[in-house]
């Protein structure tokens, strides 16, 4: 355990602490969905650090303490988290979620995020989406759904998000404080892409609902959008 708080790793410090053997979150018993999610959310960014400290209305302080002291702080301090620490969290989630398979089965990361953010910590949804002018939906993360496209061999995240939003006729109702995106590369049997290039910045201009944008022909404020 590491009760002392540490800031997220940045730049050269991230490379120094996280690179090499016995680094990252140790996998055990189909934990990869949770390991990858926790590493992405906390190793190099503080945008969700409120999950670790704030006393939300429904917050389970025991789970919050395990997440902060046994997983996030050791990861930021030494770059390594033991599988037993993640199993401790999985056991607590099993108790809270009435789902025995959290300790041994492969899960969808979205199921884990919904459980820990909504039911255990009571955080407000991070995303507001609208599809085809219908009622807006609230969620914690966005999972990319799209058909196989032959022109995308090694896509980047920007391309995948834009095409997924376009195919589903989706728009972001507002700029999200945190945009968690699940890639279409999951499961043991099928992977749509062998590799996906991370986009270090994500341009969501065209994904925002009613956002003023420039006409690509005349340069004035656009009044029409062509898919």
Automatic annotation (TrEMBL):
GO cellular-component term (any): microtubule
Residues annotated as domain Peptidase C19 ubiquitin carboxyl-terminal hydrolase: 24-204
Record keyword Cell membrane present: no
Compartment(s) where it occurs, according to its Swiss-Prot or TrEMBL record: Cytoplasm, Cytoskeleton, Spindle
A Pfam family that the UniProt record links to this protein: UCH
Molecular function, one GO term: cysteine-type deubiquitinase activity
GO terms, biological process: protein deubiquitination
Keywords: Cytoplasm, Hydrolase, Microtubule
InterPro entries registered for this protein in UniProt: Papain-like_cys_pep_sf, Peptidase_C19_UCH, USP_CS
Source domain of life: Eukaryota
Name of the protein this chain belongs to: CYLD hydrolase
């Amino acid at each position: 355990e590491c009760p002392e708080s540490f800031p997220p790793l940045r730049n050269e410090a991230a490379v120094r602490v996280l690179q090499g053997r016995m680094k990252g979150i140790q996998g055990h018993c189909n934990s990869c969905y949770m390991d990858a999610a926790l590493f992405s959310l906390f190793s190099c960014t503080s945008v969700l650090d409120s999950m670790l400290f704030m006393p939300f209305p429904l917050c389970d302080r025991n789970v919050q303490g395990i997440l902060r002291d046994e997983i996030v702080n050791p990861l930021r301090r030494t770059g390594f988290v033991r599988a037993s620490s993640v199993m401790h969290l999985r056991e607590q989630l099993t108790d809270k979620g009435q789902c025995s398979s959290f300790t041994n089965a492969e899960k969808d990361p979205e199921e884990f995020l919904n459980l820990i953010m909504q039911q255990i910590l009571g955080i407000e949804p991070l995303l507001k989406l609208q599809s085809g002018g219908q009622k807006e939906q609230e969620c914690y993360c966005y999972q990319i759904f799209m058909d196989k496209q032959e022109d995308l061999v090694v896509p980047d995240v920007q391309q995948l998000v834009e095409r997924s939003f376009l195919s589903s006729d989706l728009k972001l109702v507002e700029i999200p404080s945190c945009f968690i995106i699940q890639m279409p590369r999951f499961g043991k049997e099928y992977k749509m892409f062998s590799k996906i290039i991370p986009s270090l910045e994500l341009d969501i201009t065209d994904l925002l609902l009613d956002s003023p944008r420039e006409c690509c022909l005349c340069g004035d404020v656009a009044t029409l959008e062509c898919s």
